[in-house]
Design goal:
By secondary structure, the protein is an all-alpha fold. Helices cover about 80% and strands about 0% of the residues. The chain starts with a helix and ends with a helix.
Length: about 220
């Protein structure tokens, strides 16, 4: 959480360090000196539109301003991610991770589809290319976007990924099952039972980790 008192003290410290009066800083930002005084006393926060010019005048980064302290360059990314995490609901993070995982599975299916189905050559190359692109994009955004640990620790994400994975395997295996005369019920049970067992195992692991975290 942002601490207005700490942020205000930090603004005052940086302003004095730059040899500026409240009036001089106010004039550079196009505000009154009373506004600067309120910031420094922790009574109010600068407008979001002033974050960038204020940081420029104080020679600090926005993560440092919102943290209310100087931070090392390598910590700035982490601080920015933490601030972003505070502004994004957990539900949106879970939804994002589910989307990325489904995207990765779809990409894998597209990559394998030319080998599993009778697809003409130009189309098979196109499907393979799209599949590779889907997989690469999913991996990139999964690693680049913030909150990766929070996104992945959700049981909803794991359950969605497991369901999509087993459903995809079932769909890919269905043509060969039809050729071999395997009944549809048998085909469904072949993938449904391992899927349910996998979900149960993941739930027990997730529950144990959650209990351990609460004890710590």
């Amino acid at each position: 959480m942002m601490n207005q008192q700490q942020i205000g003290h930090f603004i005052q410290e940086r302003r004095k360090g730059r040899g500026m009066t409240q009036q001089e800083l106010a004039e550079r930002l196009g505000v009154t000196n009373k506004a600067v005084s309120k910031w420094e006393k922790g009574r109010s926060m600068p407008d979001v539109a002033l974050f960038e010019p204020l940081c420029r005048e104080l020679e600090i980064g926005i993560p440092e301003l919102l943290a209310g302290r100087s931070i090392e360059a390598e910590e700035q990314q982490k601080a920015a991610e933490e601030l972003l995490m505070e502004s994004i609901s957990r539900g949106k993070l879970v939804g994002l991770q589910v989307f990325l995982m489904i995207n990765a599975v779809v990409g894998a299916v597209l990559v394998l589809s030319p080998a599993l189905f009778s697809v003409e050559k130009p189309l098979s190359g196109l499907l393979f290319g799209f599949g590779v692109l889907e997989c690469v994009m999913s991996v990139y955004f999964d690693s680049a976007l913030p909150g990766r640990e929070a996104r992945r620790e959700s049981f909803t994400v794991r359950a969605a990924y497991t369901l999509v994975l087993f459903c995809s395997l079932g769909v890919l295996n269905y043509p060969s099952s039809v050729r071999e005369g395997v009944p549809l019920v048998t085909e469904i049970l072949t993938f449904l039972i391992p899927c349910l067992l996998s979900l149960l195992g993941q739930y027990l692991i997730w529950r144990r980790k959650r209990r351990k975290r609460s004890e710590d």
